[in-house]
Specification:
Strand content: 15-25%
Low-confidence stretches: none
CATH superfamily of the largest domain: P-loop containing nucleotide triphosphate hydrolases
Number of strands: 7
CATH topology of the largest domain: Rossmann fold
Mean pLDDT: 91
Strand order of the largest sheet: 3-2-4-5-1-6-7
Helix content: 25-40%
C-alpha cells in the first residue's frame, strides 16, 4: 500500500490535526494512519521504513559521488538528506552533517520526525555547526574519514556567504576532488529559485537551482529534486 505522502508530511498533518482539534498527538497519528488504510500509526511507520525513498536511493550512490538535493522550503530536502545519512550508518558507514542553519536540538527533532533513535548511531554520526564551515574547513575535519562516509552540507549556497571564503565554484571543485580522492559521498542541500513554478513542472531541476554566484552544476554526479511528495532522482549521463 503506497502512502499518499512521505511519512514526515503525514506526521506534520497529524500535528496540525492534534492542535486544531485539541486531541492527543497519538490519537491524531492513528487517525492519519486510518486515512492511509492502516490500523494504527505503528503499522504505518513500519511500512514507511521499508519503502522510504532514501532506502531506494542510497544503493544508487557510490563513493566519490556529489549529490544535489533541491527543493523549495518545507518540501523535505533536509529530512531526505538526513535519511540518506541514516541509510549510510545502517550499512556501517559514518554520517556527518555540516550545517549553518540547524542546531543540534533541531537535528534531534528531525531524527524523531523520521522515527529514528539517534542513540543507535552514537559512534557513527557527527554534527558540526561551526561558523567556520567552508570547503577548506570540511576537508580538514574529514582528513581521517573512512571511505564510504556520507557527508551532508546544509546548505550549498551558505558556503558562499562569507567574503573571506573562496568563490562557490572553487569550494565545490575542492570538495569534488576530495570526495573522489577519499571515496566519500557528499550530499548538498540546495535552495531553489523563487521563480520555480510547480504548475509548469512537478519537480524543479538544475535550471531552478538558486545561484547567487557562478557554479558549474555538472560537478554534481547525481541530483534529487522534491516537490509536494514527488521525487525525481537523476544520475549524470
Amino acid at each position: 500500500m503506497k502512502l499518499s505522502a512521505p511519512i514526515y508530511h503525514l506526521k506534520r498533518k497529524a500535528k496540525r490535526l492534534a492542535r486544531d482539534q485539541n486531541i492527543p498527538l497519538h490519537e491524531a497519528l492513528d487517525r492519519i494512519a486510518g486515512q492511509e488504510g492502516f490500523g494504527g500509526w505503528s503499522l504505518l511507520a513500519a511500512k514507511a521504513a521499508t519503502t522510504a525513498p532514501a532506502g531506494k536511493l542510497f544503493p544508487r550512490l557510490a563513493p566519490g559521488d556529489m549529490v544535489l538535493v533541491g527543493a523549495r522550503p518545507g518540501q523535505g530536502k533536509t529530512l531526505m538528506s538526513l535519511e540518506l545519512a541514516v541509510e549510510a550508518m545502517k550499512s556501517g558507514h559514518r554520517g556527518v552533517f555540516f550545517t549553518l542553519e540547524y542546531t543540534e536540538r533541531d537535528l534531534l527533532d528531525r531524527f524523531r520526525d523520521l522515527g529514528v533513535d539517534r542513540a543507535l548511531f552514537a559512534d557513527l554520526f557527527e554534527f558540526d555547526s561551526s561558523d567556520a564551515i567552508s570547503a577548506d574547513y570540511i576537508v580538514k575535519k574529514l582528513a581521517a574519514a573512512p571511505r564510504g562516509t556520507l557527508v551532508v552540507i546544509d546548505y550549498l549556497q551558505l558556503l558562499d556567504q562569507k567574503r573571506e571564503n573562496p568563490a562557490l565554484m572553487v569550494q565545490v571543485r575542492t570538495l569534488d576532488a576530495f570526495a573522489r580522492e577519499r571515496g566519500l559521498i557528499f550530499v548538498f542541500i540546495s535552495q531553489i529559485d523563487r521563480s520555480y513554478d510547480p504548475a509548469t513542472k512537478p519537480c524543479p531541476d538544475l535550471a531552478d537551482v538558486r545561484l547567487p554566484n557562478p557554479l558549474d552544476l555538472t560537478l554534481f554526479s547525481k541530483t534529487c529534486f522534491l516537490n509536494n511528495g514527488a521525487i525525481e532522482f537523476r544520475a549524470a549521463s
